[in-house]
Amino acid sequence: MPEKNLFDGYARFAFERDFDLSKHSSVQIGGKAKIAFCPQSVAELCALLQKLEKDGIEYYVLGNATNVLPADEGTEKAIVRMKNLSGISLKGNAFVYAGATAGKLLSMCRQNGKSGAEFLYGIPCSIGGALFMNAGAGGVYIDGIVENVLVYRKGKTELLSARDCKYAYKRSVFMDEGGVIIGATLRLKAETEEKIMERENYFSFRRAKLPKGKSMGCVFKNPDGISAGELIEKSGLKGLRVGGACISVEHANFIINEKKATAKDVKALIAMIKNAVLAQYNVRLEEEIRYLD
Fold first, then answer.
1. pLDDT tens digit sequence for 236-290
2. What is the largest CA-CA distance in the chain?
3. What is the 3-state secondary structure (H, E, C) of 91-117?
């Protein structure tokens, strides 16, 4: 198929060509995607995904793009951005769309006296991203408040129970079997604003010492009973630099883009970390970030 005709027939969808991934990822690294779609409704999202799949066009789904590393060369795949699907309803059972940020959810919860999601405080994620990777903090994860998840897969939408999502530590069925998360019903309970803010302050305090700057958050999952950051630090790697990328001296599980780092720089550091920890502690670290190639 000639390249110029690749996206013929997509004029009815909202899109942007030559989408600069470095400007839309938290680590501010990456080249351009040929096209990025930004659906305005669930109906438009489903129609878009059906057409992409029918045409054999691969795609990435992005929320806040906070735990991804885009390639320096960009990607041939289409980008599907969820930012406009960000509605939140807290009446009865709370339903939160995938594009809503954790910050927006918590703000609405405070205003409406709903508690249960405070562990997300300070995590710069979209709810879709949190559901995809079972995000959490302080030993509390989003699977603990999930009632069900609305997902698109195999050409249709379906409702999965929390059990169907096969949640585990930084793991879900979506990582293994695909599917695009549209939103979720969350189990929240009534609480006073004062109590909610107390819990938020607790999680805020826990995150206060995390590094600032352009990063992807924690790069590696914690192995069973061990802190990945501690293993990296004990391996003597804090402060190690490749090009413009640096292993944080504040938290060794963070890689900071300090001086126009490239994805190649970051990947080199990741390889060094994995090799050093394996050699010294016989532990194979596994990334929790996602690569966009």
1. 999 999 999 999 999 999 999 999 999 999 999 999 999 999 999 999 999 999 9
2. 60
3. CCCEEEECCCEHHHHHHHHHHHCEECC
